[in-house]
Design a protein that fits this description.
The structure is a single chain. The protein is built from 9 helices and 8 strands. It is α/β, with parallel strands linked by helices. The chain folds into 2 domains: about 170 residues, Rossmann fold, CATH 3.40.50; about 50 residues. A hairpin with a 2-residue loop joins β2 and β3. α2 packs parallel to α7, α3 packs parallel to α7 and α4 crosses α5. The N and C termini lie far apart (about 110 Å). About 10% of the residues have low confidence. GO terms for molecular function: structural constituent of ribosome.
């Protein structure tokens, strides 16, 4: 079942490409026709590729992966931040920092610095800092928040990357290709489809088009998160966590006690069943109150009647 309809794509203007003077010949296979000097994108192909990208994102997140949302152009900044925050995924909607992926160790140090500054009370001058020092720290925090705030919870390189306007975000795509990170992206008629593993032909300039496609990717991530949390319940086992030594000893003692318990119960059950069998055999061999047959009962009744007739009647 398609996650979006062609009518929705048409209403959001996903089918509008760039003018004929600004196009990449490699995108020719995704172009349906040309109207008034503007290329029209084939939405049938877009629909199929959206479903493919949706399934990939869902499976990636379901298996514990993360999707980095990237879109620094004005048309994409708001929807990138909104949808990424909705599903708890990292995002970059300001300037892309060179080396964010290829030099992630250094970036991670700056993220730790940002978390340290978040704990500072800039209005409290009794902690040993002067007002000037607090002002400098506040400016540093604001600068880090603007550039790294969207990836503050990113502990390792992402599993995949969603990109709006692959031509503008060429630095991010180059770093992802060096690290072998799959890229899902909107391909307008001026983009290179060879740079993206999961292309979605569409309009990357219209706000409604960008918002719709970004929401679809976020919905796929949300569905993957639901599957991830349902897996331990379905399989009946939660992911193992490291135990302390004393916890491990208690667990081993409990396992040993459980291993001995069924043996004792089996012995008791065997003894009880043996007694019941012996008792039933004795009752069958020598019944205490065996029921009388119908013939014996009739003979007894006739004898009592005869005796009563022979007995003398008292005057």
């Amino acid at each position: 079942m398609a996650v979006v309809t062609i009518r929705q794509l048409l209403d959001c203007g996903v089918h509008f490409g760039h003018p004929k003077t600004r196009w990449n010949p490699k995108m020719k296979r995704f172009i349906f026709t040309e109207r008034s000097g503007i290329y029209i994108i084939d939405l049938q192909q877009s629909l199929a590729l959206i479903d493919k990208a949706y399934d990939f994102v869902k499976e990636t997140v379901a298996h514990g992966g993360t999707i980095l949302f990237v879109g620094t152009k004005k048309q994409a900044q708001e929807s990138i931040a909104e949808q990424a925050q909705r599903v708890g995924q990292p995002y970059v909607n300001q300037r892309w920092l060179g080396g964010l992926l290829t030099n992630f160790q250094t970036v991670h140090k700056r993220l730790n610095r940002l978390k340290e500054l978040d704990l500072v009370d800039f209005d409290d001058t009794t902690r040993g800092f002067t007002k000037k020092e607090l002002l400098i720290q506040r400016r540093e925090r604001d600068k880090l928040e603007k550039s790294l705030g969207g990836i503050r919870n990113l502990t390792k390189t992402p599993s995949a990357m969603w990109v709006v306007d692959t031509k503008k975000e060429h630095l991010a795509i180059d770093e992802a290709r060096k690290l072998g990170i799959p890229v899902i992206g909107i391909l307008d008629t001026n983009c290179d489809p060879d740079e993206v593993q999961y292309p979605i032909p569409g309009n990357d300039d219209a706000i409604r088009s960008v918002a719709l496609l970004t929401r679809i990717i976020a919905d796929a991530a949300a569905e993957g998160l639901i599957q991830r949390h349902q897996k331990p319940d379905a399989e009946g086992s939660a992911p193992a966590e490291p135990l302390a030594d004393w916890e491990r000893e208690l667990l081993e003692q409990g396992d040993a006690a459980k291993a001995e318990l069924p043996v004792e119960e089996n012995d008791v059950d065997a003894e009880v069943s043996a007694k019941n069998e012996a008792k039933s055999e004795d009752e069958v061999a020598a019944p205490v109150h065996a029921p009388e047959s119908d013939d014996a009962t009739e003979a007894k009744i006739e004898a009592e009647a005869t005796e009563s007739e022979k007995a003398p009647v008292s005057e």
